[in-house]
Amino acid sequence: MSTILEARVLVPDVKLFRVHAPKIARKHRAGQFVIVRVSPDGERIPLTIAAADPEAGSITLVVQAVGKTTTLLNALETGDEILDLAGPLGTPSEVARFGMVVVVGGGVGTAVTYPSAVALSQAGNTVIAVIGARSRTHLLFETELAAVCDEVHPCTDDGSFGRHGFVTDALADLVATRKVDRVLAAGPIAMMAAVAETTRPYDVPTVASLNPIMVDGTGMCGGCRVSVGGVNRFACLDGPDFDAHLVDFHLLEQRNRAYAGWEAARRDELGPCAAVPVVVDGAAS
């Protein structure tokens, strides 16, 4: 078991957990994730490691309550125990001196971009963050990203803070007016697909941190397979980062909805939680 050292609400339905996991903290690299199990008969879910502190022996997870397991997880508080925590898993994000890098985060995916932004900044890049949410009250990690990035461009759907519009609107302006050398996107599938189409005409290398359904996280189940350039790849081993211009986002969306009905039935067991939109729990979600 792993002890929760800190638990606090960030925005509605999203909670931050700092968890005692010294071995994972020592080996973690940007882009990697853990597999979490809350109860003995519960499902295993992947969650991106938003930060790691090797000296304190802790890792940080950001969890959005979208399904039964994440709702149960978000009911835990400081001092409680997480039953199983396995990791770090996945291939670390590529970190090098690219030049100007734009990290694009949508919703809780913003937390996914943070460790990469830190690593890319430390590697000597100019790092610009474009982050989006429904409203000001749902915007994540603005302060944290501002501390490590050269610029932060917040966007809100309702115009309550920052730019009124989508992250792709701000990204389109950046790639059209500045020499952007690389883009990293994390968030809803539709958003990542839109990011890929925004950068494609400019031939800007673009990476998407994918969030397929995942079970074991070691490549044995095949549930997290994604089509990249017409080839099946496993997000748990080969990813979660992939060339966004080669990802079949339509197929990814279809596969992520495969168990939506089952997930809704599971969530109904929690009573009031059934009001939460039906989304299958996924990596970095």
Structure description:
This protein is of the alpha/beta class and 285 residues long. The protein folds into two domains: 2-91 and 262-275, Translation factors (Elongation Factor Tu (Ef-tu), domain 3); 100-255, Rossmann fold. Helix content is 25%, strand content 32%. The protein has eight helices and 16 strands. It has helices spanning 22-27, 68-73, 109-122, 142-148, 167-177, 189-199, 249-256, 260-268; strands spanning 2-11, 14-20, 33-37, 44-53, 58-64, 81-82, 84-89, 100-106, 126-133, 151-156, 163-164, 182-186, 206-209, 225-228, 231-234, 241-243. Helix 5 (167-177) packs parallel to helix 6. Mean pLDDT is 88; it is low at 272-285.
Secondary structure: elements and pairs:
Elements: E1 2-11, E2 14-20, H1 22-27, E3 33-37, E4 44-53, E5 58-64, H2 68-73, E6 81-82, E7 84-89, E8 100-106, H3 109-122, E9 126-133, H4 142-148, E10 151-156, E11 163-164, H5 167-177, E12 182-186, H6 189-199, E13 206-209, E14 225-228, E15 231-234, E16 241-243, H7 249-256, H8 260-268
Parallel strand pairs: 8-9, 8-12, 9-10, 10-11, 12-13
Antiparallel strand pairs: 1-2, 1-6, 2-5, 3-4, 3-7, 4-5, 13-16, 14-15
Helix pairs in contact: 5-6
